[in-house]
Amino acid sequence: AEDLLDRLPDWHGRVLDFGCGTGIHTRAVAEIAAWAGGIDVSHRLVRKAQAKLHGARGSVLVGDVTHMPFADGAFEAVLSYGEPLSHIAEPGPAVVELARVVRSGGRVILSVDNEWNVRTLLNPLRFLRAAASRGGAIRDWEFYDDDGRPVRLSLKTFTHPELVGLLERSGFRVEDVVGIHVFTLLVPLATDARGGDRRARSFRLLHRLDRRLAGRWPFNRLGYSKIVAARKA
Question: pLDDT per position in the chain (233 positions), as tens?
Fold first, then answer.
């Protein structure tokens, strides 16, 4: 969450966590904002988020992010962390809705799965597929949930021009881009970074390199995912 928290200190108004999940970032924002709201399509995740927000300045609800129950310009800022846009088959309407609920001059900071990353560059088949496409693709991701059950998701990746175009068509101007997991991709994702073996030490070293260079071009375009900050005109 450190990539997000670096961008929060001036968010003192009403902030929306778009695709809030279990509410980890909603709670972080509620500690500094005037009020933090969260919305997610999953009843199960929203229940967890409600528990995290107990006693905080905010609330969360279940809803469709393409048709949100908020007034026009209701928020000074919106965050969307954990790649919610990549979970939406047609992200265009969701970005239009984002533009509707954030006030003029307000900020959005969102993360997405990134099509062009170090693995793409090192894998000839992935490289050719990405080079032949005008936009992103579908990335299959497998993991285990809190109960140890296997979960498989199909997530949409974005190319940089595709994402910038999507935001600009809805009235946003991109101001900053940061790559996430740029160099740490060179170590297996299942690595326990707290361990003392060689693989864990390599991960920690590459993570420090990520933190130093991930906001600079071209590294900010080469993360497994990336954060994009934009402002509404």
Answer: 455 555 555 567 999 999 999 999 999 889 889 999 999 999 999 999 999 999 899 999 999 999 999 999 999 999 999 999 999 988 999 999 999 999 999 999 999 999 999 999 999 998 998 898 888 888 877 766 667 777 777 889 999 999 999 999 999 999 999 999 999 988 876 667 778 888 888 989 999 999 899 989 999 999 999 999 999 99
- pTM reported for the whole predicted model: 0.87
Element (H, E) at 179: strand 172-180
DSSP designation for 158 = E
Element (H, E) at 46: helix 43-52
d(CA 83, CA 128): 24
13 SS3 class: coil
Cα distances from 155 to residues 77, 90, 158, in angstroms, run 25, 11, 10
In the three-class reduction of DSSP (H, G, I as helix; E, B as strand; rest coil), residue 163 is classed as helix
Which SS3 state, helix, strand or coil, does residue 70 take? coil
Give CA–CA dist 145/4, Å, rounded: 23
Handedness of CA 180, 183, 186, 187 (dihedral sign): negative
Backbone dihedral angles phi then psi of residue 221, each to the nearest 5 degrees? -100, 0
Measured in degrees and rounded to the nearest 5, phi and psi for residue 186 equal -75, -10
- Taking alpha carbons only, the member of 106, 103, 108, 136 closest to residue 221 is 136
The residue type found at 76 is E
- Distance of CA 131 to CAs 43, 161, 164, 220, 228, Å? 39, 13, 18, 18, 22
